[in-house]
Write a structure and sequence with these properties.
The structure is a homodimer of 139-residue chains. The first copy, chain A, is of the alpha+beta class and 139 residues long. Chain A has one domain: Winged helix-like DNA-binding domain superfamily/Winged helix DNA-binding domain (Arc Repressor Mutant, subunit A), CATH 1.10.10. The first copy, chain A, has a 3-stranded antiparallel beta sheet with strand order 1-3-2. A 3-stranded mixed beta sheet of chain A has the order 5-4-6, with no helix packed on it. In chain A, strand 2 and strand 3 form a beta hairpin. In chain A, helix 1 packs across helix 2 and helix 3 packs across helix 4. The radius of gyration of chain A is 16 Å and the shape is globular. At the A-B interface, strand 5 and strand 6 of A face strand 5 and strand 6 of B. The complex binds manganese (II) ion (2 copies) and zinc ion (2 copies). Chain A binds a DNA duplex (30 and 30 nucleotides) through helix 4.
Amino acid sequence: MTKDIEQRLKSKNIKPTAMRLLVLDFLMQQNTAISLNDLEKGMGPSDRITLYRTLKTFEEKGLVHHIEDGTGTTKYALCMEECDDHHHHDLHVHFYCNNCKETFCLPNTKIPQISLPEKFRSEEMNLVIKGVCDRCNPG
Amino acid sequence: MTKDIEQRLKSKNIKPTAMRLLVLDFLMQQNTAISLNDLEKGMGPSDRITLYRTLKTFEEKGLVHHIEDGTGTTKYALCMEECDDHHHHDLHVHFYCNNCKETFCLPNTKIPQISLPEKFRSEEMNLVIKGVCDRCNPG
DNA sequence: CTAACTTTGCAATAGCATTGCATCACAATT
DNA sequence: AATTGTGATGCAATGCTATTGCAAAGTTAG
Ligand SMILES: [Mn+2]
Ligand SMILES: [Mn+2]
Ligand SMILES: [Zn+2]
Ligand SMILES: [Zn+2]
């Protein structure tokens, strides 16, 4: 149902254009975080910059979040929490597989509370764990 | 004492060239992590690429570690733990100040143990906290 | 001194992120 | 229905950082 997708955009105050419907549809099919390149290759022929700005818009509106996994290439994934245009609260851990080079959201693995030194105030946290993912692990 | 610095290089199996002595000296004067640009500006006139490779060498030998703080620019800082050419164990937290834009090592703030989902195996961890640093915090 | 190896400097390239601007699509207004 | 304003899109250009190739200079061992 494209209605679903359209509704999801509207609920985040994003105008549901054709391009945006396609991008969101594509994002919903992923089970790993993807790069702008991945998006470009995965979609039909479309302008890279428009895709870039679509992702930016989605992020601003709290529909996707970006992940800096240490590869130098920003990855994007749908938000699972109730993010909005004012706050992202992605306190889940991200995982980068050294073997298959995929980046995962681990929505059920939360970043624990950290007690910082005196007078440091935390506003955001980003924890990336690198290793071998479930699919690449034998056994 | 330049002898000190020289010894520190030798103990990590790094040949103490003039350039490397200067770079290490500079690094030891910092109390935040610095970028290649910072290094270039902070040093006398010197070749950017040589500085880049010097940092790479230092990192390979376990003298410095790099930090991806999410700004897109890699930062470097001296290792405090007993890293060697085979293993970095920087399980401390890094902090990026949204106000002064500096990146800090918090050597006394360790990354807690995280229990990952079934079959995910951890090899490295990187936790960056963003917020306001002690120097930028009133009170 | 010579030969082998390492470090340095300069030039070039590769990648990704980001911006400017003109055009297009759409929806509200008259 | 024509007008007009706003946002979305497409294309070109740029900026910035990381990275590599190669030749010159420096260092060390025999
Ligand atoms: Mn995520
Ligand atoms: Mn550190
Ligand atoms: Zn994997
Ligand atoms: Zn600060």
